[in-house]
Amino acid sequence: MSNRFHLAIPVGSIEESKKFYCDFLGCEAGSFEEGKWQDINFWGNELTLHEASEALPRERHHVDMGDVCVPHFGVHLMREDFDKLKSRVNDREKYDFLDKPYLRFEGDSREQETFFIEDPSGNVLEIKTMFDPSTLFPEK
């Protein structure tokens, strides 16, 4: 488990957020403390939802072809999983794209397709697929 990542984020409602992460995104719920926090298996990483009264402030920063929300977190998915999730967002009215899918770094070795969505508490997630995942951290 030494290569797993842990991130704790504030949410307004654990139950509403759990529905988003588990029922909509397809993640699995883990350990919890009733009314305080809930662990989510976020594609093999530990995401902890903490009940909080305030969301994180955010702004936009320019990256290649778009102005991305900061802070944000996300996941790199294989193409098939990315396309399934993209279709799920496209087909639902409740959860819409914050930033619609687009190609970034087109024609570059880092080429990727990405989109951004918000959870019910306003936390921003970037979902991406790399055309060549080996370029993420090239061997030296």
Structural features, described:
- The protein has 140 residues and is α+β, with helices and mostly antiparallel strands.
- The protein folds into 2 domains: 6-51, 2,3-Dihydroxybiphenyl 1,2-Dioxygenase, domain 1 (Roll); 59-135, 2,3-Dihydroxybiphenyl 1,2-Dioxygenase, domain 1 (Roll), CATH 3.10.180.10.
- It is 17% helix and 44% strand.
- The protein is built from 2 helices and 10 strands.
- The strands form 3 sheets. It has a 4-stranded mixed β-sheet with strand order 1-4-3-2, covered by helices on one side. The chain has a 4-stranded mixed β-sheet with strand order 7-10-9-8, covered by helices on one side. It has a two-stranded antiparallel sheet with strand order 5-6.
- A hairpin with a 5-residue loop joins strand 9 and strand 10 (124-130).
- The radius of gyration is 15 Å and the shape is globular.
- The protein starts with 5 loop residues before the first strand and ends in a 10-residue tail after the last strand.
- The relative contact order is 0.19.
A few lines on this structure:
The chain has 140 residues and is α+β, with helices and mostly antiparallel strands. Helices cover 17% and strands 44% of the residues.
